[in-house]
Amino acid sequence: MSAEPRTAPSGRRRATVRNPAVVVDDVTVVYTVTSTGGGDEVPVSAPVRLARRALGRPPIVRNQALTNITLAVEEGESVGFIGRNGSGKSTLMNVISGQLNPTSGRVYAADVPAKLGVNVSLVPALSGERNMRLGCLAQGMTPAEVDAKMDELIHIAALDKAIHWPMKAYSSGMAARLRFAVATATDPHILILDEALGTGDAQFQDRGKARMQEIREQAGCILFVSHSMAEVRTMCSRVVWIDEGELVMDGDPGDVIAVYERFMKDLAAGNNKSALAMRDEAREALVRTVVADLGPSAAQPGGTAA
Ligand SMILES: Nc1ncnc2c1ncn2[C@@H]1O[C@H](COP(=O)(O)OP(=O)(O)OP(=O)(O)O)[C@@H](O)[C@H]1O
């Protein structure tokens, strides 16, 4: 990952990106996985295939999680990523955070992204408060900076007396509060939240939202994965819908969520054909917009738009 370009092709309706914090450039991710049920088999040499068969090992198949994803996120944006289970949201967040190398394509980031639960590992036997301190130190803060920040972090985590209990006594929601507070301690420029606030109660969600707003006001950006449309509607200034590893829509939260909810409703009702037609139409509209944004050269064979 590097902090190179200030402009890039964008999946958004605007052609120019003024202050990009993250640029995802034509990213494709293909996992390989063993499968007993067939699929797109990874070619292996004949001896390897025979040896695997003799040992009773299932064939290895390709699973394409992301296909040619291109988008840019600007400073100050809070972008919600929505989509069905297995559509590729977490894979994209893992690529952006640097946890996973894409099969092809690149990610450019203006700073090292902070991904909740990744930058620090917490110690179950230690109290929440000790873990908070250690987590901050692990992210490069000085002891004096940690001291100055502790009251604010304890307020954000809203754990009351449990802040002094060992973390092994925490529920998953309580641990999520603490991890969220630690992840935001350094005022990250790029914060990735993959299903982070959903585990918390209303009080934590309010404090979490307030903290995210502060980060945005300091020119930070937030990438936010959630299955809760209510949460996405209140938290995000823009929404990206991903399905089967491809961008389907990218724009105003109200517009994108309305189509996505119709899509999900149709699928739930068994109207797969109309759901998929709606999705394909939305995806084609996005491609047309990107091509128009990129100008006439992109519409020519060999142009830059996919
Ligand atoms: N480590 C892995 N090895 C093989 N395939 C994987 C791996 N991780 C994810 N996948 C596959 O990649 C695809 C996208 O998964 P991903 O977890 O990114 O989806 P998601 O949109 O975050 O799903 P969810 O909403 O259920 O969390 C799925 O087909 C999944 O099976």
How would you summarize what this structure contains?
The chain has 306 residues and is an alpha/beta fold.
Could you explain how this protein is built, in words?
It is a single chain. By secondary structure, this protein is of the alpha/beta class. 40% of the residues lie in helices and 21% in strands. It has a six-stranded mixed beta sheet, sandwiched between helices. Strands 2-1-4 form a three-stranded antiparallel beta sheet, covered by helices on one side. Strand 6 (190-194), helix 6 and strand 7 form a beta-alpha-beta unit. Helix 3 (128-138) packs across helix 4 (143-157) and helix 8 (253-268) runs antiparallel to helix 9 (272-294). Adenosine-5'-triphosphate is lined by residues 31, 33, 63, 65, 83, 85-91.
Blueprint of the fold:
Blueprint lengths: L19 E15 L11 H9 L5 E15 L3 E5 L6 H9 L6 E6 L4 E2 L12 H11 L4 H15 L14 H13 L5 E5 L7 H16 L3 E5 L3 H7 L2 E6 L2 E6 L1 H16 L3 H23 L1 H4 L7
Parallel strand pairs: 3-7, 3-8, 5-6, 6-7
Antiparallel strand pairs: 1-2, 1-4, 8-9
Helix pairs in contact: 3-4, 3-5, 4-5, 5-6, 8-9
- Main structural class: alpha/beta
What is the residue-averaged pLDDT?
86
What portion of residues is helical? 40-55%
Order of neighbouring strands in the sheet with most strands: 5-6-7-3-8-9
Number of strands: 9
For the sheet with most strands, the description reads: 6 strands, mixed
* Distinct helical segment count: 10
Low-confidence runs: 1-15, 301-306
> What compounds sit in this structure?
adenosine-5'-triphosphate
Distance between the termini: 23 Å
In one word, what is the shape?
globular
Q: Which range does the strand content fall in? A: 15-25%
Order of helices and strands: EHEEHEEHHHEHEHEEHHH
Gyration radius, rounded: 21 Å
Keywords: ATP-binding, Nucleotide-binding, Transport
Protein name: ABC transporter domain-containing protein
Organism: Kocuria dechangensis
Domain ABC transporter: 48-269
